Amino acid sequence: MARPLTGMKLLPAAVVVAAVAFCACSESKQESIRIGADPEKFPTLKTLDVDSYISDSSYTRYRITAPVWLIFEEAKDPYWSFPEGLYALRFDNSMNENGSFTADSATYLSKKRIWRFDRNVRMLNVDGDKFLTQQLFWDQAQAKLYSDSFIHIERADRIIEGYGFESNQDMTEYIIRRPTGIFPTSDFVGGDRHASPAAGPTPPPATAPLPAAAAQAPQAQN
After folding, report:
1. With a threshold of 0.90, does the pTM exceed it?
2. Whole-number Å distance between alpha carbons of 218 and 180
């Protein structure tokens, strides 16, 4: 369910939970599962075409959409499942889009308060840094995001890639555990940040974590 990301900003996990829980909107179709079904295999509630808005201070702030939402509340470890993806959109006071988050599938462990997003996880923070990975965990209790997967970050001045990632919820303070490459945007074909890197050797992996500050443009020599 990946969608184009424009003007994105990562949304607080609590907002995603609240908006999805508030999905009793007219377009949604709910189906209760009969008693006696295996709670580990069959959801207690199935909702289709989730399309919800949530307001704050009299302004519409968020829109949450998902084709399918399954609740396994009677499972040994209760969880929610969004097998066909989850999309969150944020608005400013004038209802202009100023943030979004998307993933091809999502799972929420309700007791542990942990989200897991899988496949084509895409984000952009308030500074305009774009993030792409294939798996991301979101710990609400600790207010942090983390991943052991490959991460691709696009900044205004450079592209950063590596393995192992940890960040605050706003994606403004982050580190990469095993950086594998830092490429100036000028190394990309035609200056297109979405193109493949130009031919050339890849810098060797760094041995120390790479903080977000390390991605700032150099003042003198690199």
Report:
1. no
2. 19
